[in-house]
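Re: your question from the hallway

Yes, I did run it. Sequences:
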Amino acid sequence: MKRKFSAVNFFMYAALTVAALSFIYPFIWMIGASLSPEHEIGKMTLFPKNPTLNNFKSMFEKIPIGRSLFNSLFVAIISTSLVMITGSMVGYALAKMKFRGRQLIFFVIVFTMSLPFQVTLIPNYITMVNLRWVDTFLALIVPFSVNAFAILMFRQAFQGLPQALIDAARLDGCNELQIVFRILWPNIKPTLVTIAILTFIGCWNEVLWPLIVIRDEKLMTMPQLVTLFSVGGRADSQLGVKIAAAVLLALPVMIAFLFLQKHFIQSMASTGMKD
Amino acid sequence: MNIALAHTNKKNRFQKRKWLPYLLVSPYIIFVAVFVLFPVIFSFILTFHKWNIIAPMKFIGVDNYTRLFQDRLFWISILNTLKFLLLHIPLQLAVALFLAVLLNQKIKAVSFFRASFFMPVIVSGVVVTILWQQLLGYDSGIINRLVTAMGISKVGWLVNPDVAIYSIAVMATWKNVGLYIILFLVGLQTVPTQYYEAAKLEGATKWQQFYHITLPMINPTIFMVVILSTIGGFSLFIEPYIMTGGGPLNKTLSAVLYIYKQAFQYYNMGYSATLGFFYAFMIMLVVVIQKRVIEKEV
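Structure:
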C-alpha cells in the first residue's frame, strides 16, 4: 500500500531536513575549514578551493597533540575498565547478597548522585595536592574509577538474573569474583556496552577536572590541551589551526559513533531511565 | 571429632561469607569516604577560613558568607546562569518534543535523522564551542550572513552584552537536544496506539490527539527533561570559558566559571568553597522545588 503524498508529509520532511542540515552543516564546514588556507576560512564555504594540510602541520609543531591523544585514550580506557570492575563488584553485592548496611549504601549512592560537583571540587583538588597526585595520571584516573551510576546499572542488571545461575556456579566451586566476571558478565552484554560507552565518552570529554589538576603539557588530555590552545595565545589567533585542533578532538568520537550508532543512542537514552 | 571439625569449618566459611559483601562494596566505601564525605566536611570547614593553599589556613568566622551576600559579581553570575536557563530549558523542551514527534511518525530515513541530531551530543563541548564561535562571528559568521540575507542588520551574537548569554543558551541547546529527542522518542513509543485509534473514531484532530493524549502520557518524560537540563544548565562552564571568558561586561560569567576563577585564578580557596557550597545548596533547592511542583501536577 502506497502512502499518499500530502502537504503534512511534505512539511514534516522539510522540517526534519532543515533541522538535520543545521546539525550536520557545522561539522562539514569545520572539516572543510581545517583544510583551508587562513584567508579562505572567512568565506564560510563548505569545500576549500585550495585544500592544504598546513593547519594540521603547524598544530603538530605548536602543541603535543599526538601525545595528548595517547593520554586521553590511556586515561579513558583505564578509568572505564576500573568503573566496570568496581561497578560490577558493588552492584553484585547490592543485588544478590544480604548484609547489614545494604540499604544504607544504596541510599548513599542515590544521594551522592544528586550532590552537585561544585561542593567537592575544591577539596578534591586539595586532596590531589596532599597526595602529590597533581600532574600525574592518578589524578585523572582514581577519582573516576568508581561511578555511582554504573553501580546502579549493574545492580539492576544483576537483579534480573536468576539466583539459580549463581547457586549452580557456587556448587561448581566458583568464588564470588569468578561468578561476577565469568558467569554473570556474559549474561548482561547490553548493559556492559552501555556502561562502557557512557563512561568512556564521559572521561573523554571531561575538561574542567584536567584543567585543575594537570599543568604539565606532556600529561594533558586532548580536550584540555585544545581548550588551553584556543583560549591562550598559542594559536597566534590563527583560526585554521584552532579548527584543526577541534577536528582532531572530534574525529575519534565521531568515527566510533558512525560504527556503533545504535549502541550509542541506546546507551545515552538509558541515562534518563534512572527513576 | 570429625563432627566438631566439620562444625568449625562451617563456622569459618560462614564468617568468611559474612565479610564477603563488605569486601565487594569496599571500593565504593573507600571512594565515598575520600572523594565525597571528606570533601563535603572539609569544604564546610573551609568556608570559615581564608586560605590561598600556600600560607596556613586562617579562621575568619562567617566573613566568607557576609562577603558572598555583598559580592555583586557573584550575584551577576547567578543572574546570568538563570537567564541562560530561562531560554535553554523551554527551547530544549520545545525543539526536542517537536522533532521527536516528527520522528515518531511513519517516516523514512529515521536513523539518518536521529543520527544527525545526536552527533553534537557525543562530541566534546570544546569542539562545539570552537565551532559556534565561528558560526556566531560578527563579520563572517554564517548566522549573520543568513540574517543580513533576510534584510536584518548584523547582530553581535557574542559581543553584545545583552545578547551573548542567550547565544550561548541556543548553542547549548543545539549540543544537547539530540539526547532529549531520544528520551522523548522512548516516551512517545510507550503511548498505546489504541488511544489514538479511539480518538480518531471520536473525530479528534491530530492537534487534539497531541494535546489530550500524547502530552499527558509523556508527562514523566517532560519532567525528567526539565530536571536533567536544569542540573546540566547550572554547571555551565566550558562554553563561556572558551567563547567569551565571561565577557562582555561579565554578562556571560556563569556561576561555575566564577567559582573556578575565585579558586584557581585568585587562589581564594575558602571563599570559593563557600560559593560552591552555597551554589550547590541553591541547585538542590531548585530541583526539590521542581520535583514538588511536578508531583503535584501528576
